[in-house]
Each structure stands twice: as structure tokens, then as C-alpha cells.
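User: Hey, quick favor. My workstation is busy. Could you predict this chain's structure for me?
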Amino acid sequence: MTNVVIGAASGMGAAVARQLAARGPLLIADQNPAGLEQIATELGGDVEAVVCDVTDQAQVDALFVKVEELGALVHTAGISGSMAPGRRILEVNLNGAVLCARHALAHFVARGGGGNIVNCSSVHQIIPKPGYLAYSISKSAMAGLTRTLALEFAGRGIRVNSVGPGAVETPINAAWTGDPVKRAVVESHIPMGRVASPEEIAGVFAFLASPEASYITGQTLYACGGITLFGEFRDSWAS
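Assistant: No problem, here it is.
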């Protein structure tokens, strides 16, 4: 079976691809040709790279035509509020995940025997992010996508889960990860006191995409250093 990683040209997606490459045939996709080629060259072996914009129905169709026997779909493609207009953010973060999930589900149902989808959400699935409305909407909606598809297809042995990263040292966060002052402000709000590496988050994706997670579905697993614990409440100032 071929595992598919969407958004694999950099950051968490690239880290996931590195972990899944050891499990067998791998198809990696991204809209960044140069980054995609670099990762494919690095991984070598039985890895196929396909340039794909997940907001383009025809490109997504063409991508999944290349997969004869789908193992797990790991969808990490995403952009933030500082990178594009709101409509584009929703198209990439939410609609792109829906388009890819639709193909994966059709494949799993036709084949029988179950299947596995892991999407990328965020701590902002449950924590509001003022000033980033489209991003917050896209990640809040991931809860509905994950839980609804998981319930609808559980009887067919198809699992659907999400990973909710916190602050991660990836290109999407480059505006503050390389600035010591801004980084210190972010880390001051993280109970564990540090930003995650892409590899730490990739391990969570790889787990959910593996047989070890065979009884987990409809869940968002937060890998956030404790941000979702609302660290400001460490002292009982509210009671």
C-alpha cells in the first residue's frame, strides 16, 4: 500500500514524510515544486513526488489517480493569516482537506478493508485567535470534519483523526521563530516553555497513521506543550 502525505515540501509535512518513508511506498505532494523535489531526492527509494494545489479539483483528481492501493492519507497542507487572504486560507486549510478526504474515502469504500485519514488541525481548533478569523474558522471546522467523517465511516473500518499542533518551528512561523524577542513572548505562554520541533509533531501524525492507533477515531490529538491547558490558570486567580 502507498501512504500519501499532502503538504510534504517543508515543515511538519516533510518531517512526516521522513517518518513514513520507512514504512513502504510513499507519494508526497505539495504546490512547491522545488521543496518537493528536495524532499523526494533526500528520501530516495520508493517515493513519488507530485506537484498539487489542493484547492484545484483537477489537480487533486490527478493526484489520486496515481495511487493504486492507498494506505494512509496524511494531510498537512495549510497556510496562516499572514500568508494569504481569508478566502484562500479557507480554500487551502479546509476545502483542500475535504477534497482529499473525499478521494481517500471513495478509495477505501471501493476497496473494502478500512482505511486511515489524518488531518492537520491546530490548537486554534479550540483556542480563539483574534485577528486571524479565517485561520481560526478553518481549524475550528476541522473538528466537525474529523468527528463527522469518523462517525459516518467507522462501521467500514475507516479511521479519521486530526493532530492539533501548538507552536512549531516551521516556515509558516518564521516571522517569529527567528526573532529572539518575539519567540520569548510566544514561549512564555507555553507551559512547557519551548517551541516544538517538526519531528516531535511528525511522530504524532505517524502514530495516528499506524496500526498502533487502530482503535482511535474521531479524535484531535493535541501536541501543544500544554497550550490547551490554558496556562494562565496555573494560579487560581479566578476563584
